[in-house]
């Protein structure tokens, strides 16, 4: 509540977490409970991190729409304001938060195709948080993700 005030023009986002250690925000219920307690909920939103939800045990690979339905029922899709896109070095539910390059981890390329083409989320800002040592790596990933848009 200390960073929220009436008339503010900035939206504060809570990021989904992988559930390692004592992290708060590893379940949609925890995030919803936080949002329910703030003085200005209209100034709050959620940033969904693909690696974090996968490592946290949410199934996004097999059925993205069911995952989004669950998010909508617990938090509400209207609260979803941004996506962090990254694959995961770990299997589902590992609770480790180890980002991987798009398509080179356990989430896989087809899931990212489903995300960037899904009308429920494809207009949201999408931010890459993948490990690369040179800028060209991110450029290649951006081109790859954009290529999926031509598939529609």
Could you explain how this protein is built, in words?
One of its GO terms (molecular function) is DNA-(apurinic or apyrimidinic site) endonuclease activity. There is one protein chain. The longest helix has 15 residues. The model has no long low-confidence stretch (mean pLDDT 92). Helix 4 packs across helix 5. The protein has one domain: Alpha-Beta Barrel (TIM Barrel), CATH 3.20.20. The chain has a four-stranded parallel sheet. With 152 residues, it is of the alpha/beta class. It is globular.
Topology (SSEs and partners):
Blueprint: E1 12-15, H1 28-37, E2 44-49, H2 50-55, H3 64-74, E3 80-85, E4 87-88, E5 99-100, H4 109-117, E6 126-128, H5 135-149
Parallel strand pairs: 1-2, 2-3, 3-6
Antiparallel strand pairs: 4-5
- Spatially, the strands of the biggest sheet line up as 1-2-3-6
Rg on CA atoms, Å: 16 Å
In helices, the fraction of residues equals 25-40%
Q: Can you tell me the CATH architecture?
A: Alpha-Beta Barrel
Low-confidence stretches: none
Please tell me the overall pLDDT: 92
